[in-house]
Design a protein that fits this description.
Length: about 650
């Protein structure tokens, strides 16, 4: 369970900032034996409250220069004279630690507090027992409790609080402050809080007797040692202003005075995550699309319109008649197969196969290349549609164990030097998908290879934009058609990154190089199906669900674009965390430019698109074999572009 603690000195003399840091370090390190997934602390001084929360463990947080800088900047010598603090080292149970509000001290409208234990919630238990995965955005039991506490009226607050405790199932050890008052409340039904009220009228508590005793012995504060008492089935109320302590026996009459509001206080968040959120909201975005100022090579005119919107040309589809003219050359007049098509099991390839077989009367063979990140849902979809259409489906699988090892090596290398231009290296191993189309066509003596690609909506300038190279794209231009100068610049940029980060020289090196060659140099004479026909999302989804019981992947949310790629959620988590946008922002911006949706709709869609898909991330981490929480911690601590 978690470790909670509070230090409220009766008097502070000759106390320095370094003394404060050492005391924080001492009690948090002692408490972290009970849990060290996250760390949080709140400082109280006269009319001010400062809060710092971190998803890192206590030792790393306190050693971090950002923590020292933010605390030192706000807590001066004058504030030190009346300083007190309360905090927690958390063992995560319910509610992801990467959701800021779940981490403690929890701050609601009127309450700031810490909680050790688990409040049992029947509804949440039943829900998550059934679906068997953690909802990243799920509220913790502690947050739900403090939100309930915030709703109580001021004049009956204490009685309402005690009655709430009596109704709760589970174990609890709680300490909190009502933001509008000078009182600290401490309660436990298990005895997992020990307190000392010394001769100087100072009040100290911790989750275990030994933790509190060891802190008292090592502290730089003048604490008069006295009897340490266990809190069990009663509530303590410590008055910060008058330094007196009252006690409420839960089954007896109140022994404290009626609750009174003294004055209003405002909490200042020192945490860098909170600051990042504020900067994210201030990001300048194009007034036509939704791309932000962090998008590589972006600029804005005097009206706030970005250069990508100004230079954008709507996709000119080649048309059904031109497509039919090409297909006619290869269409079989017997029952023989006449083409081979790439099938991922995603939305576009599934719908494209439907059109090709049903509407255009071709006789295709489908193939899928599984490089280790093909999702189960996409496999099921591919199976359904091939079965319904009577299409032969050829599977080519890589040495999946080896491919996943390469992905892990690339991720580990990227984390050592997180350059966003290098992020596509994670998916370098999937480039053989195109190669197998050529290979199988030759084996089967088929002259036509079709891929269900070609939408300009999928155009993503930022992929190479993060290398500093400006390659103007049009009609979802293939990488093989980039100018020779662009390819040379990219080669030298990647080579420089390999030299600056030698960990890339590993077992994945040859596979990465082959991915580069396949992407930029091997001839791409395939037929890109959706260069001919316009894109209609509602028609696609309606057709697939009605005719083939096509499954959406709930892990990817409402937007099912690229749902067949297992690394999508991971890459987008990085882009969104570090840059404030993802592939979805790019996709929705292209939809705006094509006149398919409004800017208002795009903003609403992206709010949902960019929600962190924890279950998809968890699945990816388990397949590849890395500790997700450790990697997320690293990514979230990287310097942001905003």
């Amino acid at each position: 369970m978690c470790g909670i603690f509070g230090v409220f000195p009766g008097s502070v003399k000759n106390y320095t900032f370094n003394n404060l840091l050492k005391d924080i370090s001492t009690i948090s390190n002692l408490s972290s034996a009970r849990g060290s997934d996250t760390f949080g602390i709140s400082f109280f001084s006269k009319n001010k409250i400062y809060t710092y929360k971190s998803f890192k463990n206590p030792k790393k947080t306190i050693k971090c220069e950002i923590f020292k800088e933010r605390v030192f900047k706000n807590i001066n010598n004058n504030i030190l004279k009346s300083i007190s603090f309360m905090g927690q080292t958390r063992l995560v149970t319910t509610g992801s630690k990467f959701v800021y509000d779940n981490n403690q001290p929890i701050v609601t409208n009127n309450v700031l507090g810490v909680h050790n234990g688990i409040f049992f919630n029947e509804k949440i238990f039943k829900k998550y027992k059934k679906i068997n995965f953690e909802d990243y955005n799920q509220k913790s039991d502690s947050l739900i409790f403090f939100e309930e506490l915030s709703k109580f009226k001021k004049n009956t607050f204490v009685n309402s609080y005690i009655n709430l405790l009596k109704k709760k199932k589970g174990n609890y050890s709680i300490a909190f402050r009502h933001i509008n008052d000078d009182k600290i409340y401490v309660s436990s039904n298990t005895g997992s809080i020990y307190y000392l009220y010394d001769k100087n009228n100072g009040f100290y508590f911790a989750s275990e007797k030994k933790i509190l005793n060891d802190f008292i012995e090592k502290s730089y504060l003048e604490i008069n040692q006295d009897r340490i008492i266990q809190v069990k089935n009663f509530t303590l109320i410590y008055d910060l202003k008058n330094k007196n302590l009252d006690k409420i026996i839960h089954n007896n009459k109140l022994l404290t005075n009626s609750y009174k509001v003294k004055f209003n206080k405002r909490i200042k968040h020192l945490t860098n995550l909170e600051e990042d959120n504020k900067r994210f909201l201030r990001l300048k975005r194009c007034r036509k699309c939704i791309l932000p100022e962090t998008y590589p090579l972006i600029s804005f005119d005097k009206n706030g319109i970005c250069n990508f919107c100004i230079n954008y040309q709507k996709q000119k589809f080649k048309g059904k008649s031109k497509l039919e003219k090409i297909l006619k050359k290869f269409r079989s007049k017997s029952n023989d197969n006449d083409c081979i098509v790439g099938l991922s099991g995603g939305r576009d390839s599934s719908y494209g196969l439907h059109l090709l077989k049903k509407k255009l009367k071709m006789r295709p063979i489908a193939y899928t290349y599984d490089w280790g990140l093909t999702t189960d849902i996409s496999r099921i979809n591919a199976s359904k549609i091939c079965g319904e259409l009577g299409v032969e489906h050829i599977i080519r699988a890589a040495d999946i164990e080896k491919k996943r090892k390469y992905i892990k090596l690339n991720i580990e290398s990227w984390l050592k030097r997180p350059k966003l231009g290098m992020l596509p290296i994670i998916q370098a191993g999937d480039k053989s998908f195109i190669d197998y189309g050529r290979i199988l066509a030759k084996e089967l003596n088929l002259k036509l290879v079709i891929h269900f690609t070609g939408y300009q909506l999928e155009q993503r300038e930022f992929f190479i934009g993060f290398t500093g190279i400006d390659q103007k794209l049009k009609n979802n231009q293939r990488m093989t058609s980039y100018s020779l100068m662009t390819k040379i610049k990219l080669f030298f940029w990647y080579s420089k990154e390999f030299l600056l980060n030698p960990s890339y020289f590993n077992a994945a090196l040859f596979d990465n190089f082959n991915g580069f060659i396949s992407s930029f140099f091997k001839p791409n004479n395939l037929l890109h199906f959706f260069e001919f026909l316009p894109w209609n999302e509602s028609e696609i989804e309606k057709t697939l669900k009605k005719n083939y019981s096509w499954n959406e992947d709930a892990a990817y949310g409402k937007n099912q674009w690229r749902m067949g790629d297992g690394q999508t959620a991971f890459n987008n988590f990085i882009y969104y965390t570090m840059c404030g946008f993802s592939e979805y922002d790019n996709f929705r911006s292209n939809q705006i430019r094509e006149g398919l949706i409004s800017r208002k709709q795009a903003i609403a869609f992206c709010k949902k698109d960019n929600q962190i898909r924890y279950d998809a991330l968890k699945n990816f981490s388990e397949i590849i074999g890395f500790n997700l929480d450790n990697v997320i911690c690293k990514i979230m601590s990287f310097k942001k572009l905003y």
